[in-house]
Amino acid sequence: MNADPSTGLAEFLGETFGSPVRVTGLEFLSAGARRRNVAFTAEVQGQGARPLVATIVPPAVEIMTVEAEAAVRELARANGVPVPEVVAVCADPARIGEPFLVSERIDGETVPRKVLRLIAASGNAETVARQWGAAMGALHAIDPALAPEALPAAGADPAAEQLAEAEKGVRTLLADRPVFAMALRWLERRLPTAPARTALLHTDLRNGNIVVAPEGLTAVLDWEGAQRNGDPMRDVAWPALRMWRFRNDDKEFGGFADRDTFVRGYEEAGGSFDLDRFRWWKVMGTLAWGVGLAGQAAAHLDGTVRDIVMAASGRRVSEIEWDLLMQIRPDAKA
After folding, report:
1. CA angle 80, 193, 325 (to 5 degrees)
2. Alpha-helix residue ranges (DSSP H) falling in the chain
3. 330: number of CA atoms within 13 Å, CB side?
């Protein structure tokens, strides 16, 4: 990406809006772990000022094209999911150095700790939880056949595919960790059948990818992992994992919401909650996160896999082991 993308953004948006544009107030945001988000104001001649955000996607981290991401976001927005409007898409890296899409800027907090502080100050936890569930329910109510063909699709049996991938990861990276072996056996014994109805998934709709303001949830962000024909309970279970609670472990969803409130919003918006499938995907998501931690360590450090996991990611992998034990123990609550 160019050090200062102002000129490229102004030229491209000028062509998009049909009037000269001046870019002001450029600010590189902290949001986005892999992609770059840049807030700015586009002063459009004859049309006024528009607060916008450019999401810049380096090819090395691209999961889907910016055109496909823009299409799925607009599909979700048209069906009642609160998504910032996409106003421009540019796949040409010559403009600012990398492909990007430009969206309207939504006020509110996205950083999880700030979200939790805002919710505590505003006293709107129940409202946000219900709106969060409703956003997911509205997404899952969309016919996945309407999604862009470029969007990745789950296979005929999403749970079996995820389990096979998890087994491969554990065998490669965590073969000497008994808890992961136990969790795999638990998942194998309870493997659900293919879902009767598949859905369009976000796959990462957790605290950290929502925008929250005093009035409630205002937007869902980061759609690069969206998927067609997935199991809806995979989406529901992911934001309930302990790592997204930020030490507020008594609040299952995001550290501020209880399950009943989230599910009530989800079902009111057309979702259908399945407790057994939810629990299975929750264990699967936890195990997959542990495999991911081990993989990150192996990719960035030298040494044997065992040394890497124990020395670099040992603490966090052990935390995942604790989570797995708590989830699969015989007296565990679903």
Report:
1. 90
2. 6-17, 66-78, 112-122, 125-140, 158-173, 178-189, 232-237, 259-268, 275-300, 305-311, 314-328
3. 0
End-to-end CA distance of the chain: 46
Tokens of 287: 């195990």
- Cβ atoms of 132 and 265 within 8 Å: the answer is yes
Task: Report residue 330 as tokens.
Answer: 């015989």
| Count of residues making up the chain | 334
The two structure tokens encoding residue 299: 């990719």
The H or E element that residue 108 is part of is none
pLDDT of residue 333: 75
Q: What is the pLDDT of residue 331?
A: 82
pLDDT higher than threshold 70 for residue 303: no
3-state secondary structure of 214: coil
Residue 33 pLDDT exceeds 60: no
- 83 in Cβ contact with 210 (< 8 Å): no
pLDDT in tens, 258-285: 999 999 999 999 999 999 999 999 999 9
Instruction: Give per-residue pLDDT as tens, 34-90.
Output: 788 999 999 999 999 999 999 999 887 788 999 999 999 999 999 999 999 999 999
Question: How many CB atoms lie under 10 A from the CB of residue 81?
Answer: 25
Summary count for the chain: helices (H), strands (E): 11, 9
The neighbouring-strand residues paired with 42 are 23, 50
Nearest alpha-carbon partner for 29 in 2, 56, 6, 50: 56
Q: What is the pTM of this model?
A: 0.92
**Which residue type occupies 127?**
T
The structure tokens 């007296």 sit at 331
CA distance 329 to 325: 6
Q: What token pair was written down for 36?
A: 């770059």
